[in-house]
């Protein structure tokens, strides 16, 4: 038996929330793994912690690929979280759209800058 909740009811696809919840957990797990890898490398290093050590850590190709993956994961993680906040608390559609566009541009710019710095090493 169907119940009519009114014309303003929004229906979304099945498991829409599950996909966002799962993406947040997977990206967070990747960021934790990255943090552990960097901390292990710092603890295992000899000598002072300076530019040379940091450049050495991030100069290996596997570390660049891992860091690139984390930059993309972090941008996605932030986008899902901020988008949900905007959808929950910003009711005017025009303002919400403008904030979402600004957020996308900002995240792509930050990710591009991070990747540019990473591949210069």
Q: Can you describe what's shown?
A:
By secondary structure, the protein is an all-alpha fold. It has one domain (16-120): Fumarate reductase/succinate dehydrogenase, transmembrane subunit (3 helical TM bundles of succinate and fumarate reductases), CATH 1.20.1300.10. It has 4 helices and no strands. It has helices at residues 16-44, 51-59, 61-89, 93-120. The longest helix has 29 residues, at 16-44. The chain starts with 15 loop residues before the first helix and ends with a helix. The model has no long low-confidence stretch (mean pLDDT 89).
* First-residue to last-residue Cα separation: 63 Å
CATH architecture: Up-down Bundle
Based on secondary structure, the structural category is: mainly alpha
Q: What share of residues is helical?
A: over 70%
Give a quick rundown of the structure:
The chain is mainly alpha-helical. The chain contains four helices and no strands.
Task: Describe the secondary structure blueprint for this structure.
Blueprint: H1 16-44, H2 51-59, H3 61-89, H4 93-120
Pfam families: Sdh_cyt
Membrane topology: Multi-pass membrane protein
Cofactor: heme
């Amino acid at each position: 038996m169907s119940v009519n909740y009114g014309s303003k009811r929004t229906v979304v696809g099945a498991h829409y929330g599950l996909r966002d919840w799962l993406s947040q957990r997977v990206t967070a797990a990747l960021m934790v793994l990255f943090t552990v890898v960097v901390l292990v490398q710092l603890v295992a290093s000899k000598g002072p912690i300076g530019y040379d050590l940091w450049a050495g850590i991030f100069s290996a190709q596997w570390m660049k690929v891992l860091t690139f993956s984390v930059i993309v994961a972090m941008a996605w993680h932030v986008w899902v979280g901020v988008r949900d906040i905007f959808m929950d608390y910003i009711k005017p559609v025009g303002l919400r759209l403008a904030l979402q566009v600004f957020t996308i541009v900002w995240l792509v710019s930050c990710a591009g800058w991070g990747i540019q710095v990473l591949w210069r090493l």
